[in-house]
Amino acid sequence: MAKNDRAMLELLKDELTFLEQADYGRSVSAALPESAFHNTQTCLNSQEAALTRPCVECHLIDFVAHDHHSAVLPNRFIALNDAGETIEHLEAQGNQAKLDATLKEWLKAKIMQIENDGPKPEERKRSTDWC
Asked: What's the Rg (C-alpha) of the chain?
């Protein structure tokens, strides 16, 4: 597993732990709008009163469709399931329990995907190259 994959794995696991121990309905930082990811340690701006760091630097930006990279909070547009439901869509429904359950399943799926992918063939070759 590549170093970046490990970092992402830990980030997603931390996010899942946060979701399971608390709920996104309670803001960690009252200075920011309540939203999944945005009020957790995952967000680069989580302790800021304003968005001081560009969201394109977000650890989750690779999960966001390219056409939403310039959005104010691009992680709100991560497709969380096969139906294409996003945080934005689920928050608009006003059903926190559904959002939490959908997000929890997405996190578990991404964690499993990273854990099961393991090192790529070229990484295995490099790590066993003794000469």
From this structure: 16
Domain residues for 100?
Answer: 3-123
105 pLDDT above the threshold of 90 = yes
Query: Rounded to whole angstroms, how far apart are CA atoms 54 and 72?
Result: 9
- The reply to whether 37 falls in a domain is yes
Please state the separation of Cα 52 from the chain's center in Å: 19
Structure-token pair, residue 33: 């709008």
Number of folded domains that form the chain: 1
The alpha carbon of 31 is separated from its chain's Cα centroid by a whole number of angstroms, namely 21
Please state, in angstroms and rounded to a whole number, the distance separating the CA atoms of residues 25 and 10: 23
Residue 68's pLDDT band, with cuts at 50, 70 and 90, is very high
Answer yes or no: is 128 within a domain: no
> How far, in whole angstroms, is CA 105 from its chain's centroid?
12
What pLDDT score does 93 carry? 93
Q: Residue 42: helix, strand or coil by DSSP?
A: coil
